[in-house]
Amino acid sequence: MRTIGIILLVAGLVGFVVTSSRRSGYDSVEGTLKSTFSSSERSKKEGLETGRWVSAGVAVVGLVLVFVPGKKA
User: Fold this and answer.
1) Rounded distance, CA 58 to CA 54, Å?
2) Residue 6: Cβ-neighbour burial (10 angstroms; 0-12, 13-18, 19+)
């Protein structure tokens, strides 16, 4: 379980960093205007925000699997 936890933790952190960097383009004035007037840009922004939260959740599950002891055989 520990190796699965480490894999999930790393995948979640990498996903969070990637989606955060892509979403940061919408924090500028130009990005705000694009997402305000374009429904496709708004859906991209919302998709990236959802991806950030899913990645954070995966990282938390990985963290729990790393630190919670498994069954002893």
Assistant:
1) 6
2) middle
Q: What is the pTM of this model?
A: 0.80
- Could you read off the pLDDT of 10-52 as tens digits, one per residue? 999 999 999 999 888 878 788 778 777 888 888 888 999 999 9
- List CB contacts of 34: < 8 A, sequence separation 6 or more: 26, 41
In the DSSP assignment, the letter for residue 28 is S
Structure tokens at 9: 């933790």
Cα separation of 24 and 39, whole Å? 18
Alpha helix segments (H runs only) across the chain:
2-23, 29-37, 39-67
Question: At which residue do the structure tokens 């500028």 appear?
Answer: 28
Amino acid making up residue 67: F
